[in-house]
Amino acid sequence: MSCCPAPNLTDDVKEYYGKTLQTTGDLQTSMCTTPAQKMAKHVREALKLVHDEVTSKYYGCGIVVPECLEGMKLLDLGSGSGRDCFALAKLVGPDGFVTGVDMTDEQLAVANKHVEYHQKVFGFSKPNVKFVKGYIEKLGDAGIADESVDIIISNCVINLVKDKEAVLKEAYRVLKYGGELYFSDVYSDCILSEEVRSHKVLWGECVSGALQWKQLYDIAKSVGFETPRTLTVHPVEVHKPELKKVTGDAKFASVLYRLFKLKPGFENEASQVIYNGSVTGFPDKLEFDRDYTFENGKAVTVDSVTSAILKQSRFADDFMMKKAPCCAKTTLVGEVDPFQILEESGEKVDMRSQACCTGTKCC
Ligand SMILES: C[S@@+](CC[C@H](N)C(=O)[O-])C[C@H]1O[C@@H](n2cnc3c(N)ncnc32)[C@H](O)[C@@H]1O
What we know:
- By secondary structure, this protein is an alpha/beta fold.
- The chain has two domains: about 260 residues, Rossmann fold; about 55 residues, Ribosomal Protein L9, domain 1 (3-Layer(aba) Sandwich).
- The protein contains 13 helices and 13 strands.
- Helix 2 crosses helix 4.
- The chain starts with 8 loop residues before the first helix and ends in an 18-residue tail after the last helix.
- The N terminus and C terminus are likely disordered.
- Bound molecules: S-adenosylmethionine.
- The site of S-adenosylmethionine has 24 residues, from helix 1, helix 4 and strand 2.
- InterPro entries: Arsenite_MeTrfase-like (IPR026669), Methyltranfer_dom (IPR025714), SAM-dependent_MTases_sf (IPR029063).
- Keywords: S-adenosyl-L-methionine, Transferase.
- Belongs to the methyltransferase superfamily. Arsenite methyltransferase family.
- Pfam families: Methyltransf_31.
- One of its GO terms (biological process) is arsonoacetate metabolic process.
């Protein structure tokens, strides 16, 4: 990064999420944009069960609910008041477990207050979610062991941390092989100016700390993850004129990515795969990323990395796989410019027209 954030960055962020913001409606950008139409029914139902106080302090920027969750061990980086953790606790079921890590006492207090409530609502004999105080760039200090987690999620948090590489390194360390980091975050179309990066409110609103989207690919590669896969892209608008003056022409988008950790040395071979419709909530088709959608019963030729992902991950039992015909041509999934996607899809930059946010009031 070429510029430096404000010196007391961590304390400022704690103050912003612990004291300045009281509810989602206090946000000053359209960061909290969770388009309801994209959610599968079982996910909507799980979210409906989350306690109102928890939901009122939701500050995320995407739907971080991966598929195929039953019995999984999940970790949420920057779990806040726990909305995603509680919904996911329902979806992993009584044999799964969700751990949320956050550094802000006030947010942790709200989350901890409602652990028993959700256990009862879900009808589980014991809680399957816990919240730990800690820093996501130092997960070891929070007691998270090497290769102990199946899936990591994170919703609008990594941009708040100065050392993004440290966060991704820690995520890689604690994930099992075949596991994934499935996360939503804010990205920019350019390297941001010093003025933007040192702005306290814009930093707290997840704008100033946004990586230029290409930087994510470089960091992911250096840490050992496979190429990030893009799932969804939504524009983020800075509404207030005084903040817009600071950000100028820079564009922002929240992007949902999935990054897999694979055992090295997998076969460099394309495969033909057939989805068997067994993933909960997706009997007809599984939209894996922007490049691959798997329809039930239909053969799809996938590149060597996607083939290794399906073989090594929790999706292995959901596919029948065989060697691709030798004439089959595939291209490895590469970098995707989220801003080009927005331009091509003709989406307006103002999220109010298509999401559940109205002005600064969010869902
Ligand atoms: C934008 S909020 C998102 C919270 C939650 N994921 C949600 O969707 O509601 C950011 C959260 O990240 C936490 N956070 C920021 N930097 C952190 C760090 N370095 N370590 C742990 N938590 C952090 C903040 O305390 C805050 O609760």
